[in-house]
Specification:
This protein is globular. The chain is built from ten helices and twelve strands. Strand 4, helix 5 and strand 5 form a beta-alpha-beta unit. The chain has two domains: 225 residues, Rossmann fold (3-Layer(aba) Sandwich); 66 residues, UDP-galactose 4-epimerase, domain 1 (Alpha-Beta Complex), CATH 3.90.25.10. The N and C termini lie far apart (42 Å). It is an alpha/beta fold and 325 residues long. It binds NADP nicotinamide-adenine-dinucleotide phosphate and guanosine-5'-diphosphate. The site of NADP nicotinamide-adenine-dinucleotide phosphate has 26 residues, from helix 1 and strand 6.
């Protein structure tokens, strides 16, 4: 089937891999709330639809859905401590998923693919702020080299598909994401969902909240619903192969201690807060510049951090039984 001659009546069939995860659910919500356009059909996938590490399953999935556009989110994802344990699995699974998705999209003549990198893939030894030109300028932090190199290779592959086949395959680079439908598993998840879950349990059990590490490392956090709105803008408007950082400003970076304090305030936790310095701090900071984003969207309003944390804590408490944990 030639490009543009797709089944269905809508002009755009947008396939979202990883549609059941934190970012995918946020895009689904934003589309449902009215950001979707009449000519767009959205299809949100989970691993139940196909195991994307498997090339044949991936190709069959793409043939079944005949997408014109792909938002590629599916990945093995985890916080610092999961990354430190499984660097090999992060590398292998993500390399296979990414190659299968990008090549199936190429074979089908998909108009545009947006993949998802992360600011944690940038060089560890660097100058700040980090910008889009620096992805390949030195080794990533040793804690997550498997994930980081697999993600960096998406950028290489996108450039090669453009050079050899004129494909519009690009990528976005979000900072630490959080929100509803996150992975709240304490061992495997990222810092905010981990601390929200720990605070919930400490409050329920009358125990202390244990924050891992010194609390000094710094992070820029983006609310999943803000990221979802930006993804939709990238899908419709962004025309570069070069990736774009999707981040709050450098001035909005907070320490892990300040992030924990926001959660404590949002949940009204009155107990003791302890820092377990026997646990790793990971990368000290990865301060990213959002000046490229700001050139395109000077007026985009990010949800204030404390409000987004409160909404996420409230969602977790209200959905404790169904939340991933
Ligand atoms: P997530 O909540 O863990 O969701 C991962 C998604 O990938 C799920 O839908 C999962 O399906 C799917 N998936 C995993 N392995 C798969 C496989 N073998 N076959 C098919 N689907 C598979 O992750 P997220 O936080 O939304 O992350 C989305 C993207 O953003 C990822 O590419 C991640 O690297 C990137 N990112 C995340 C962050 C962050 O802080 N979370 C920061 C920067 C970039 P099931 O639900 O069926 O398991
Ligand atoms: P990173 O941003 O890629 O390093 O990954 P995380 O989202 O896992 O954040 C890791 C940082 O948060 C490190 O400085 C950890 O020491 C700190 N941290 C504090 N408490 C926790 C926790 O409960 N879970 C996780 N994942 N990190 C924590």
């Amino acid at each position: 089937m030639a490009d543009g001659e797709r089944k269905g009546t809508k002009n755009k069939r947008i396939l979202v891999t990883g549609g059941s995860g934190l970012v995918g659910r946020a895009i689904e919500q934003v589309v449902k709330e009215g950001e979707g356009q009449a000519d767009e059909e959205w299809i949100f996938l989970s691993s139940k639809d196909a195991d994307l590490t498997n090339a044949a399953e991936t190709r069959a999935l793409f043939n079944r859905h005949q997408p014109t556009h792909v938002i590629h989110l599916a990945a093995m994802v985890g916080g610092l401590f999961r990354n430190m344990k499984y660097n090999l699995d992060f590398w292998r699974k993500n390399v296979h998923i990414n190659d299968n998705v990008l090549h199936s999209a190429h074979e089908l003549g998909v108009t545009k693919v947006i993949s998802c990198l992360s600011t944690c893939i940038f060089p560890d030894k660097t100058t700040y702020p980090i910008d889009e030109t620096m992805i390949h300028s030195g080794p990533p932090h040793s804690s997550n080299f498997g994930y980081s190199y697999a993600k960096r290779m998406i950028d290489i592959q996108n450039r090669a598909y453009f050079e050899q086949h004129n494909r519009m395959f690009t990528a976005v680079i979000p900072t630490n994401v959080f929100g509803m439908y996150d992975n709240f598993n304490i061992e495997d998840g990222h810092v905010l969902p981990g601390l929200i879950h720990k605070t919930y349990l400490a409050q329920r059990n009358g125990t202390s909240l244990v924050v891992w590490g010194s609390g000094k490392p710094r992070r820029q956090f983006i609310y999943s619903l803000d990221l979802a709105r930006l993804f939709i803008w990238v899908l419709r408007e962004y025309k570069e192969i070069e990736p774009i950082i999707l981040s709050v400003g450098e001035e909005d970076e907070v320490s892990i201690k300040e992030a924990a304090e926001s959660i404590v305030a949002a949940m009204g936790f009155k107990g003791e807060v302890i820092f377990d310095t026997s646990k790793s701090d990971g990368q000290f900071k990865k301060t990213a510049s959002n000046s490229k984003l700001r050139k395109y969207l000077p007026d985009f309003k990010f949800t204030p951090f404390s409000q987004a944390v409160k909404e996420t804590c409230d969602w977790f408490a209200a959905n404790y039984d169904l939340a991933r944990k």
